[in-house]
Amino acid sequence: TRNLIFILGDQLSLSLSSLKGADPTQDMILMCEVVEEATYVEHHKLKLAFLFSAMRHFADEMRAKGFCVRYVRLDDRDNSGSFTTELLRAIAETSPRSIIVTEAAEWRVLSAMEDWQGSVKLPVEVRQDTRFICSTTEFKAWAKDRKALTMEYFYRDMRRKTGLLMNGDHPEGGRWNFDSENRKPAKPDLFRPKHHVFPPDAATQEVLALVERTFPNNMGSTENFSFAVTRTDAEKAADGFIRDFLPNFGETQDAMLAEEPFLNHALLSFYINVGLLDPLALCRAAERAYFEGHAPLNAVEAFIRQIIGWREYIRGIYWLKMPGYETSNFFAASRPLPDFFWSGETDMACMSTVIKHTITHAYAHHIQRLMVVGNFSMLAGLDPYAVHRWYLEVYADAYEWVELPNVIGMSQFADGGFMASKPYAAGGAYISRMSNYCESCRYDVSQKTGEKACPFNALYWDFLARNAESLSGNHRLAQMYASWRRMSAGTQQAYRSSASAFLGKLDDGSRV
Ligand code: FAD
Ligand code: DLZ
Ligand code: SF4
Description:
The protein is mostly helical. It has helices at residues 35-39, 45-64, 83-94, 107-120, 136-143, 151-162, 202-214, 231-244, 269-274, 279-291, 297-321, 340-343, 349-361, 366-379, 384-394, 400-411, 428-434, 455-466, 468-471, 478-486, 489-507, and strands at residues 3-6, 28-32, 68-72, 98-102, 124-127, 166-167, 170-171.
């Protein structure tokens, strides 16, 4: 063997940098399912099954291109359980002249990779991951000397860099951002198109059995498997999104409906994150839909912004702040996660619905993650590290580089505002405006305090009051603190004692 090309589970792209110049007659591909990766958190069963099945199908795709693929399955008898030991075993058995890899997306794995040069005694070439539009070096240069890392300015640079929705130097439609036309609630719609489902093929069924047998106690059930696991099927899902959902993507982006967990969302993050879909190609397809008159600008701009703006920005923040970002805890919050995070058994209809969807699908959309579970976690003072671990476990698209800044920075404000200019905190009124959850809830969203009142209401004010020292200087919260100060001592007290009664129940494990 000339080069041994080691491809990780989230590197399933034909354009992968480690495959540049690869020659099937001389080079060998190594892929392995390892227990170390499968257990660093207790991943949802659907997440494990999706990844292993996508890896196995990718190995077949490369074999069809003539490559020799050394593929180590999780239950192979000689599987030594980690990337490093599997690399060493492969080297001993295949005697390559050098090792080629694409940089790992996560700090934990990249730091192991950086030690390989010393331990394998062969040349190890670590190549940049060119599937991102902005390299980590470029992001660091962008961030240097800036007082605030505002996503919107970063996004404009990415629009200029890619030329997406640009007329020369000017944004298409005369504005960079059309979100003022978005953020509408949604109504149930029996005629809304359905997202593609992909029934498991024989190879996936084998993986489902493996996962069920090896990880019986992890969240979820392998019975609900419907992910695409091949590039062809992922592309089908992408085409379906552009045809059926993109035209309405913007308007209902922030809406939530109990009976429609997916609304007009893409359900493509899983495929993008493992490399089955190319983010830039997807944006170009969305742009085409706009120029062909199939989808309006507010929708297409919003979709493109999520990908070349948010997704790239989040990755930049991750590499700027790691290691150490994962233990950020600005509010010194320490409450453990309540058991209902794993069962959905709570009387709060919003939390129950989102968590149960999560258990069933290993998916929840952005506003559910941010304004329901994330918001509750921050208001209730849950330990942000534990919250981070939960998100990393339960969502099929969760890899630390993308999950961590979204959780620690955006949703928990645990980095003290490095990323977000104010905490995404809201009382029940927000959830009630953007969803229909409250209609079926035991709690009453219009009551502020007391046993029947929506817990988010008192928790919201209690959160502001107990963190006044760290937050009251934030000018974006000035109005809220002014409202708090205008309340009578009695009202303030009622909020605080309602919140503490609720938190007391959380702490003693009573049903809430
Ligand atoms: P859509 O809503 O249809 O958006 C289209 C695409 O935009 C997504 O596929 C995704 O690639 C990209 N995107 C949108 N928002 C973000 C964002 N904030 N960060 C990165 N990419 C974005 N996304 C993950 O991929 N993995 C995670 O582990 C993850 N954890 C999150 C945790 C929290 C607390 C929050 C608030 C957000 C998280 N996100 C995560 C971002 C976002 O919620 C998901 O990307 C999105 O819900 C995926 O579903 P979709 O494909 O239907 O997305
Ligand atoms: C998430 C994950 C899991 C659960 N298992 C594997 C695996 O067995 N083999 C593998 O190559 N990759 C796995 N992954 C994805 C890796 O964790 C991911 O590629 C690294 O974190 C690099 O970012
Ligand atoms: Fe959630 Fe409160 Fe509405 Fe119940 S009333 S669904 S707890 S926001």
